[in-house]
């Protein structure tokens, strides 16, 4: 019994990480007024870059950095398209998703001659990993979980207690007002989408390096979208998003233990149903940032 | 040689439909209060937005303190020591007052905002200048009068040397204007230069050293205030003589149209805002409500129009109970509403002028035609808009121009036109001439009186005492959510009203 509970708990935490990271990415971006559905694609590209770089250079940590970098680059592209060129944010996000689906498969063939690539290393913490206790522990709760917890807390402070956070939120609510106070709207929005992409890329690295230990085409499997659901469920706050990520992770973790009468497809619907429920219910109504999705132009 | 703080020379700025500034030169001396006046759409805000770096001029030059500058954005202007109160508030609703004030120049310790200091600073400014605000309140819960104070505090906080004030008094009550003028005098004594835009000419006379008049995008004159008169300024602005006081004749009231009894309601913070309001308005009369902003006027209007629930009491329209009905149903009963905040409640800025003129009646023929499903008829909509644009002198005249591109006063005229044109049984006019020029005030006042004479019951709520005095057949004074007195206009002197409004009955 205890063992089952522990297994479910550990699995909940492990599964919550990608949702939380993607959701945080969404939170940064939308708080600044930019919709980033490209999270799904940034995650997928990140997952590939992580394994590719790990296998080529032999270091999973470099793989992680590469994943974050690729996510940030895709975030930057999203920024250029919809902040500077003022194109539609959904269309640009969709383009990033489709592009990622193609480029990852293309590069898989090009570099490894297959679309399922096993990672040759995982993230190991120097010193700690030598000890048996930690080795066993990390096999249940991988090191990136702790990084994620840290990022959640830092994001909370960053968004709600710092100068940058105040400006970032201001830009997502009423960019013109922020502009009249000398806040650089474009710079804040770029910063937000780049962070957003980086977090999604990191979520991808977690998936391929820590969770599955391999890359396979389409490995993100909608987790970027569930991340957006977590963001809404968490009312565009880092702590709320993490809470929602855990809830969705739990929904997935209990699946193997549920009686087989409920088709698993129904369980997969839970995050979306919960999100719709939250959006539709008057209690704890979630209002998105007022200017989300609207490009800012000066005149 | 005169020492100029600001020299705007030969500035031209064109928008797709209009030349908003046509070779404009404005020279402002150091340490003076310079009034800038002109009709709606004359180009005042555009010129100030150029000076503040929000808009780029097509040609012309800016010189600050003798140094030629070119601003890429407001950030540059702020660095050059310029501050601006915008005609339309630049406040972020979900943030607190303190956050709105310090945004862009936040007190901080290594990037972490020092909120206690921010709150203390805002409180200190609020106390020092008599601008009452609660620094921790969220802006979305506040009324326009308080928002105006926050905008002023924002500029004071930044300690600019040149202050641009674009209609800062539009929604202030007379006492507040007095206090505000004291602030301006104190700032002037500190050597600050102030550019002050207003449509209230007595304010120009009371506070400014010099006046510049704009008309249709051009400068038409700059004079010393001491050498001129309101009549002369009005004539310069409009190009004809203006009646500053409308002759309204006497009312012939009929049956009671609106009757409010024992009305109670809560404000946005769930505190009692109305504490048992009784009033009635008859067909063919104008009831004016005088009061200092924030004494329940906003909530009263919202309850009557169905935008806010009453907690107690009753609202009847021609004998039928209307409280608890949706705003749409209230409208359908023949209630017109000119809201106090045209951006929040009056217009959809992204929509064209034409579409804005049918909001609320858009589901009626001739604007919809039923072809199996209801479809809008653009021809009918544009025809209506063209008629109203001509009748209310809305400029530019293109009905397909987005409402957001109009000047503030012209936006107001769109709202007024729409609401009056429906010939409602009851017309609620909250700050009906906010930001409207003298010529148009005259016009809107005339129309309100015509509506009265046509049998409409009119309820006027205004922070502008003069407006209430010149329009009303009866004046009710509201104080802390109660009607504390009712006067006939003959007995209502500014002093008596002033006393009632501050609760010193
Ligand atoms: N962003 C814009 N796009 C197009 N036209 C504009 C824009 N802003 C202003 N205009 C036009 O420029 C002209 C000048 O407008 P402006 O707002 O400067 O007038 P104003 O003198 O401030 O009037 P008011 O007293 O009504 O505020 C108007 O005809 C207006 O319709
Ligand atoms: Mg203006």
Give every kind of bound small molecule, once each: adenosine-5'-triphosphate, magnesium ion
**Overall helicity of chain B:** 25-40%
Q: Secondary-structure element sequence of chain A?
A: HHHHEHHHHHEHHH
* Biggest interchain interface, per-side counts: A-B, 24 and 26 residues
CA distance, first residue to last residue of chain A: 65 Å
Computed over alpha carbons, the radius of gyration of chain B is 23 Å
Instruction: List the strand order in the largest sheet of chain A.
Output: 1-2
Assigned CATH superfamily of the largest domain in chain B: P-loop containing nucleotide triphosphate hydrolases
CATH topology type of the largest domain in chain B: Rossmann fold
DSSP summary, beta strand count of chain A: 2
Overall mean confidence score, pLDDT of chain A: 91
Strand line-up in the sheet with most strands of chain B: 6-9-10-3-11-12
What is the class of chain A in the CATH system? Mainly Alpha
| Oligomeric status | heterodimer
Gross geometry of chain A: globular
Structure overview:
- The complex is a heterodimer of chains A (299) and B (505).
- Chain A has one domain: Orthogonal Bundle (ABC transporter involved in vitamin B12 uptake, BtuC), CATH 1.10.3470.
- Chain A is built from twelve helices and two strands; from the N terminus they run ααααβαααααβααα.
- Chain A has helices at residues 2-31, 39-57, 60-84, 89-112, 132-140, 143-161, 163-173, 175-180, 185-212, 223-233, 238-253, 264-280; strands spanning 116-118, 214-216.
- Chain A has 299 residues and is mainly alpha-helical.
- The radius of gyration of chain A is 19 Å and the shape is globular.
- By secondary structure, chain B is α/β, with parallel strands linked by helices.
- Chain B folds into three domains: 4-238, Rossmann fold (3-Layer(aba) Sandwich); 243-334 and 424-505, P-loop containing nucleotide triphosphate hydrolases (Rossmann fold, 3-Layer(aba) Sandwich), CATH 3.40.50; 342-423, no CATH class.
- In chain B, 32% of the residues lie in helices and 27% in strands.
- Chain B is built from 17 helices and 24 strands.
- In chain B, the strands form six sheets. In chain B, strands 6-9-10-3-11-12 form a six-stranded mixed beta sheet, sandwiched between helices. Chain B has a six-stranded mixed beta sheet with strand order 18-21-22-15-23-24, sandwiched between helices.
- In chain B, helix 14 runs parallel beside helix 15.
- The longest helix of chain B has 16 residues, at 174-189.
- Chain B is globular, with a radius of gyration of 23 Å.
- Chain B starts with a strand and ends with a helix.
- The model of chain B has no long low-confidence stretch (mean pLDDT 91).
- Chain A binds chain B through residues 157, 161-164, 166-167, 169-170, 173-174, 176-184, 287, 290, 298-299, and chain B through 52, 54-55, 73-75, 78-79, 84, 86, 90-95, 99, 103-106, 108, 111-113, 154.
- The complex binds adenosine-5'-triphosphate and magnesium ion (MG).
- Residues 44-45, 87, 166, 407-408 of chain B line the site of magnesium ion.
